[in-house]
């Protein structure tokens, strides 16, 4: 490859200096220089295009030596051994005694991540041992060796590692978590208090995904880290458990409880509404979404004109407008949406007919005669005496 590239580049002849050449030669030098430099620029451009090489993803490397792993029974941390979970009861990783032991290794995303066999299988879960930094399989692993992204969607009943969630959190807020609510906030305890504690916490936890909010209680050595994606919070919880920041502390990482702050609750409710609205926008056509949100001026004008149904000043609700539009589109009629012309219920009186002095008008009597076949008789209304009404509101029989 290098030989072909050097063969394409033409050899340029160095031009003599102006002091060594006469005036006639100096006048031709600029033309010679431009003629010689033009093919060299094109050759350099061709050379740059040849250097564009698509690199394949690198395979995931083993984080620990497989020969160093020993199949030994777990250390006794309780009085009863659970054969189903292959551990002593009460001796889990987040026990108040075992949580004070430092982790064996730490995951390095920049060096350890790569493709595995799980990349060929859609819907694969992430490797739990990769997050803890102790996976010996490398690219032969059946799980993903990378960070979760927004495109990695899982069933709400399981976490990103494929472990089943529970209906409620544990008393110590450890474990897998609950499927009753979406928790993206981690509680981080036992932080060594320094002047730059906020910068240290933000730097270490930003390795595992995009952080939305970080709150540090400096006096207590406690921090609350909120991620934009729940899967990144699950990954960070396992990756930072029993780890240390810039000092030799051993972190206590657990799930955070519900924030009692009303502003935080309103912010979470607004985020869920925006997330649901964004899902609806992606599912519907762009033109229809613009019309719904009122961003289409032509749609607003058409709705104002066609939606009045022939009634001046009437604006129909959205339910009536879209239901009528759906019926017209289904029928293939693209005419203006107008109310059908209906005959009046009461016909006008014939010309020359005098108005009757009864209770009903002459036009009403004419309509009733048409319905009854002409068998309607009218009587004149009783002429009132014009005197005042005496005892109008009395119910007594003596009156």
UniProtKB/TrEMBL annotation:
Q: Where in the cell is it found?
A: Nucleus
Write out the similarity annotation: Belongs to the RRM CWC2 family.
Where does this protein have compositionally biased stretches of type Polar residues? 24-40, 375-386
- Per the UniProt entry, what is one GO biological process? mRNA processing
Segments forming C3H1-type zinc fingers = 122-148
- Which organism is the protein's source? Aspergillus sclerotialis
Function noted in UniProt: Involved in the first step of pre-mRNA splicing. Required for cell growth and cell cycle control. Plays a role in the levels of the U1, U4, U5 and U6 snRNAs and the maintenance of the U4/U6 snRNA complex. May provide the link between the 'nineteen complex' NTC spliceosome protein complex and the spliceosome through the U6 snRNA. Associates predominantly with U6 snRNAs in assembled active spliceosomes. Binds directly to the internal stem-loop (ISL) domain of the U6 snRNA and to the pre-mRNA intron near the 5' splice site during the activation and catalytic phases of the spliceosome cycle.
Compositional bias (Basic residues) at which positions?
48-60
User: Where do the RRM domain residues begin and end?
Assistant: 184-258
Source domain of life is Eukaryota
One molecular function GO term is: zinc ion binding
> Which part of the chain is the C3H1-type domain?
122-148
Q: Which UniProt keywords apply?
A: Cell cycle, Metal-binding, mRNA processing, mRNA splicing, Nucleus, RNA-binding, Spliceosome, Zinc, Zinc-finger
Q: What are its GO cellular component terms?
A: Prp19 complex; U2-type catalytic step 1 spliceosome; U2-type catalytic step 2 spliceosome
Q: Which InterPro entries match?
A: Cwc2/Slt11, Cwc2_RRM, Nucleotide-bd_a/b_plait_sf, RBD_domain_sf, RRM_dom, Torus, Znf_CCCH, Znf_CCCH_sf
Name of the protein in question: Pre-mRNA-splicing factor CWC2
Sequence segments annotated as region (Disordered): 1-76, 335-358, 375-399
């Amino acid at each position: 490859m290098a030989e072909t590239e050097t063969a394409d580049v033409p050899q340029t002849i160095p031009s003599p200096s102006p002091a060594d050449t006469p005036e006639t030669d100096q006048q031709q030098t600029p033309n010679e220089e431009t003629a010689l430099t033009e093919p060299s620029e094109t050759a350099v451009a061709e050379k740059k295009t040849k250097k564009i090489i698509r690199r394949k993803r690198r395979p995931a490397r083993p984080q620990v030596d497989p020969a160093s792993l020993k199949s030994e029974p777990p250390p006794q941390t309780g009085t009863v051994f659970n054969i189903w979970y292959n551990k002593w009861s009460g001796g889990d990783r987040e026990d108040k005694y075992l949580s004070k032991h430092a982790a064996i290794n730490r995951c390095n995303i920049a060096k350890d991540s790569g493709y595995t066999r799980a990349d060929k299988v859609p819907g694969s879960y992430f490797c739990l041992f990769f997050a803890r930094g102790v996976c010996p399989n490398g690219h032969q692993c059946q799980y993903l060796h990378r960070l979760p992204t927004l495109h990695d969607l899982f069933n709400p009943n399981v976490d990103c590692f494929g472990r089943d969630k529970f209906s409620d959190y544990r008393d110590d807020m450890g474990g897998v978590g609950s499927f009753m609510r979406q928790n993206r906030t981690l509680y981080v305890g036992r932080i060594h208090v320094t002047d730059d504690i906020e910068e240290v916490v933000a730097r270490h936890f930003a390795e595992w995904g995009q952080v939305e909010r970080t709150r540090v209680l400096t006096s207590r050595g406690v921090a609350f880290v909120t991620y934009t994606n729940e899967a990144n919070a699950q990954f960070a919880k396992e990756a930072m458990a029993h780890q240390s920041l810039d000092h030799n502390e051993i972190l206590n990482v657990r799930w955070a409880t519900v924030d009692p702050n009303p502003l935080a609750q309103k912010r979470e409710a607004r985020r869920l509404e925006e997330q649901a609205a964004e899902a609806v926008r992606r599912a519907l056509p762009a033109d229809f979404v613009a019309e719904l949100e009122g961003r289409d001026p032509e749609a607003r004008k058409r709705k104002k004109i066609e939606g009045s149904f022939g009634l001046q000043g009437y604006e129909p609700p959205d339910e009536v407008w879209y239901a009528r539009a759906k019926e017209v589109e289904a029928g293939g009629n693209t005419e203006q949406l107008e109310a059908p012309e209906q005959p009046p219920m009461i016909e006008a009186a014939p010309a020359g007919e005098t108005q009757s002095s009864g209770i009903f008008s002459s036009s009403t009597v004419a309509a009733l005669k048409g319905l009854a076949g002409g068998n309607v008789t009218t009587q004149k209304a009783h002429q009132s005496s014009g005197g005042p009404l005496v005892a109008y509101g009395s119910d007594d029989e003596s009156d």
